[in-house]
Amino acid sequence: MWFPFPLLLVHCSILVVSSGAAESSHTLSVNQTLSDGQTLVSLGQVFELGFFSPGTSRNRYLGMWYRNSTPTYVWVANRNDPIVNSTAELALTQDGSLSLRNGSTSYWSVNTTAGASLQLLDDGNLVLKDGSGNYLWQSYDNITNTLLPGMKLGWNLETGSVRNMTSWASSTDPFSGQFTFSLDPPESPQLVLRKDGQKLYRWGPWNGVRFSGTSELRANPVFDPIFNSSPQEVYYSYQVVEDSVLSRLLLTWDGQIQYLSWRNSNEWTLMVTLQRDECDTYRKCGPFGSCYSGDMICKCLEGFVPTSPQSWNSIDWTDGCTRKWELNCGNGDGFNRDSENLASTSTPPEGVAFPQRRPILVFYPGLLGLGS
Ligand SMILES: *[C@@H]1O[C@H](CO)[C@@H](O)[C@H](O)[C@H]1NC(C)=O
Ligand SMILES: *[C@@H]1O[C@H](CO)[C@@H](O)[C@H](O)[C@H]1NC(C)=O
Ligand SMILES: *[C@@H]1O[C@H](CO)[C@@H](O)[C@H](O)[C@H]1NC(C)=O
Ligand SMILES: *[C@@H]1O[C@H](CO)[C@@H](O)[C@H](O)[C@H]1NC(C)=O
Ligand SMILES: *[C@@H]1O[C@H](CO)[C@@H](O)[C@H](O)[C@H]1NC(C)=O
Ligand SMILES: *[C@@H]1O[C@H](CO)[C@@H](O)[C@H](O)[C@H]1NC(C)=O
């Protein structure tokens, strides 16, 4: 594997990056600093860590991007604490802590007592190791808006830590935005998209084979979804089928969940969008309403009428439905037994409580050259 400069130099100092010739190391050792303008580059030249300003912003952030693509930031350290009208440096101190700071002003830190080196790996993991090579901290545990292949979305039940995705505030502001994407809860795992903490969409629960409601979220020519459930960990992850293809799962600032890949096209290609099936919207039809993908999305269950006919007719279904009359078990009221069979009919009879679902993943095989 080609390595850009002699290892000996790493020991002395991080090389200053002069304009044009970006000579970088992949490791930061104790007593070394990474200043604005310098970068760490993973050994195989896949990822780069350094300072950047997104869009036209003048704020500075420490973050990670692909070395060989248009600027695409996959991780940001100080997303909620930008460096404004100043500069800062990343330092691995003698006591083993990592901090992004200017003098006594700290923008981001990882506190340990044994940090010996910080390394950027080719899979996009930034790891702080102790003298024996154990990970004390890793950026894979600190997901921002991007899930890289191998990252785990979910729960580490031993440490109690949860790894969620949180969108940027806007396309040029890494500040924690309105949308989160998480796997919860571990007992009955569902993938949930929230806006301002309110459930918007959910996929699941995991039925042992796939997330119910997502018949398409399964192995395909581009990536293999992974769901793992053990006493130690419950998580969603994925791996790419072809190692040479860069691939990422992105929660966009406006709440879309996208799989993108980078081939030889010199641009990111949208492979899959977790499509917004209206019926995946949480509580779309309110109490006693049921959801159908189609023109008339919500219907009341048999024996129920819209609670607020006026808003129901103006396509606001959130008030749901109420009983036409009080239950009277001696008068023919009972359970509706047939919903299982009716699930397979394409036009459900009036008032049947079973949602018709479209697949919520949309593939674009033509864009990937898979269609031919
Ligand atoms: C770091 O710097 C301190 C103070 O200059 C020095 O005592 C220590 O030996 C250095 N540690 C390493 C690993 O170079
Ligand atoms: C940064 O500098 C600009 C222009 O000088 C000024 O308007 C702004 O208030 C400063 N921001 C902070 C946080 O100091
Ligand atoms: C700290 O900030 C001052 C003023 O903003 C700047 O002149 C200086 O270069 C900064 N120091 C580092 C280490 O970035
Ligand atoms: C790390 O320690 C510094 C200084 O004691 C403190 O300001 C900072 O909040 C700590 N960071 C974390 C993540 O605990
Ligand atoms: C991840 O980063 C956020 C914000 O910087 C911080 O609050 C959180 O403690 C970090 N988590 C881990 C596991 O490092
Ligand atoms: C992750 O999401 C779960 C479910 O919404 C929430 O309980 C938890 O606080 C979130 N954790 C983090 C670190 O954001």
UniProtKB/TrEMBL annotation:
Per the record's keyword annotation, is Phosphoprotein included, yes or no?
yes
Q: Which compartments is it annotated to reside in?
A: Cell membrane
Annotated Gene Ontology cellular components are: plasma membrane
- Gene3D superfamilies the record matches: Bulb-type lectin domain (2.90.10.10)
Superkingdom field: Eukaryota
Cross-referenced Pfam families, in alphabetical order? B_lectin, S_locus_glycop
Stretches assigned to the Bulb-type lectin domain: 25-141
Q: Which reaction does it catalyse?
A: L-threonyl-[protein] + ATP = O-phospho-L-threonyl-[protein] + ADP + H(+); L-seryl-[protein] + ATP = O-phospho-L-seryl-[protein] + ADP + H(+)
| InterPro entries linked | Bulb-type_lectin_dom, Bulb-type_lectin_dom_sf, S_locus_glycoprot_dom
PANTHER family in the record: BULB-TYPE LECTIN DOMAIN-CONTAINING PROTEIN, RECEPTOR-LIKE SERINE_THREONINE-PROTEIN KINASE
Protein's name in the database? non-specific serine/threonine protein kinase
Q: Which organism is it from?
A: Punica granatum
Q: What is the lineage of its organism?
A: Eukaryota, Viridiplantae, Streptophyta, Embryophyta, Tracheophyta
